[in-house]
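Entry 14. Ran structure prediction on the chain below.
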Amino acid sequence: MRVRVKPAAVGRSGEATSAEREPTNSGRQDLLEQVLARENLQRALQRVKRNAGSAGVDGMTVAQLPAFLRTAWPRLRGELLDGTYRPQPVRRHAIPKPGGGERELGIPTVLDRFIQQALLQVLQPVLDPGFSDASYGFRPGRRARDAIRRAQGYVQAGHRVVVDVDLEKFFDRVNHDILMARVARRIGDRRVLGLIRRYLDAGIMVNGVKCDRHRGTPQGGPLSPLLANVLLDDVDRMLERGGHRFVRYADDCNVYVRSRRAGERVLARLRRCYARLKLTVNETKSAVAPVRGRAFLGYTFWFAARGTQVRRAVATKAMQRFKDRIRTLTRRTGGRSIEQVVDGLRAYLPGWKAYFQLAQTPGVFRELDQWLRHRLRALHLKQWKRGSRMYTALVGLGASPSDARVVANNSCCWWANSRYRLNRALPISYFDRLGVPKLS
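Output, structure tokens:
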């Protein structure tokens, strides 16, 4: 992919600044042949198998796909090459959002997920090198933790006011014509462009009725994140031309400035830029505000050493969602054994810990571990009931007869009774043997 650099775009190091990179069109007319190459298709099939997922409107499962392709692929390949292939509508699936409301997903058929994945594997290397260095979402070799570290660096350097922009239902409001115009700047194979357009126009199935869609790129398909980055590249370029310090992860964009007045100017420019893309800024969630207390990708920043050192912490809402999830997993109703509860914790806690391990708050994680074990001790007591059954269980776990007697005869609520003496009967080592993951 060629990159044109103007003479004035060369920085002190002699390298081209990202502000002057222009979108270039891959003039290759054989992109579709690359998509349909045997090796690329095999990789796509393996990826679809790993991702699994539910069936689309046709009911075909991932397990059924290989057998279907063995007989139908020659016909499908011909349709893809001559432009007569028509994707099926996506299946509408709504999931609750953490802050309330619902997020609408569009689940393509397994076959269309396979074809989109094959497209993605060819288009990503063509499109990705032209994206901004400040863009991190859904890009190879880039993760949310990299975006958080970059944002922390800006705050540490003194840019402690953030322009936090939230878009209203971004994936549902992508304008197809504007998006395709920007894809066409970079892709020269008209057959690939036509296939992408047909995926955008495939429609959505609601209660058995197909509804046409004239905007939106459904979340749930492999291509949607890449197309989102193509569209939002306009925003990145505007910010780079202004020399702004920003981080974007998909549709989440934070710009870091030194004053509220500068932030208001940036926000006004962003509103105009998004309006040209026919996207709407959510004014109730967007703000120009001090960094302290604002969440970005589940993290927030706090200041140590009299405000000179910036530290990472789990954002308040993310912490509340974590506690709500743990309360659900360890609820004292439902008749589940402690082993079943621990299995649920083992499925949830390692992933949460892996994402939030950047947080520089070890004391908070120690407190969460103590709180979790407290809940598990209270669950044990509820399962044992009071009296002789509880006494026998505690002694069997190694508690002294005096401690077991006090706990078994205590009339306090389960939460209050699961302190003090019970800590000696059910120490940390007991939960380690059960396999309860630790956060700290």
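Residues 1-20 have pLDDT under 50 and may be disordered. Will compare against last week's run tomorrow.
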